[in-house]
Amino acid sequence: MWSSSEGQRINSFSIITVESNEQVKGIHQRMPVILTPEEENIWIGNTPLFKALDLLRPYTFDELSIKQVSRLVNSVKNDSEEILEVDE
């Protein structure tokens, strides 16, 4: 959370990306950082910067599954289960 110049409190977040792992490279050159529950505790805790930065790496691909979805996911205007269907 942060405060705007007018003093309004704003909830926000950032997605940190890294170079893609082997499984994702066929789709895109970057991927979001994915932390395990143990790593989340390190990230959120009072951790030295060098240790937190060590967590910014591609996720182990054997623990990741990929599913094709509709191109509808490319627009925030689309908010339905239809985005989970594969385009024909």
How many strand segments? 4
Percent strand equals 5-15%
Widest beta sheet: strand line-up: 1-2
Number of separate domains: 1
Helicity level: 10-25%
Low-confidence stretches: none
What does this protein look like?
The protein has one domain (about 1-80). Helix content is about 15%, strand content about 10%. The chain has two helices and four strands, in the order E-E-E-E-H-H. It has helices at about 35-45, 50-55; strands at about 1-5, 10, 15-20, 30. The strands form two sheets. It has a two-stranded antiparallel sheet. A two-stranded antiparallel sheet has the order 3-4.
Keywords:
little secondary structure, 88 residues
Brief summary of the model shown:
The chain is low in regular secondary structure. Helices cover 15% and strands 11% of the residues.
What is the fold's blueprint, element by element?
Layout: E1 2-3, E2 9-10, E3 17-19, E4 30-32, H1 37-44, H2 49-53
Antiparallel strand pairs: 1-2, 3-4
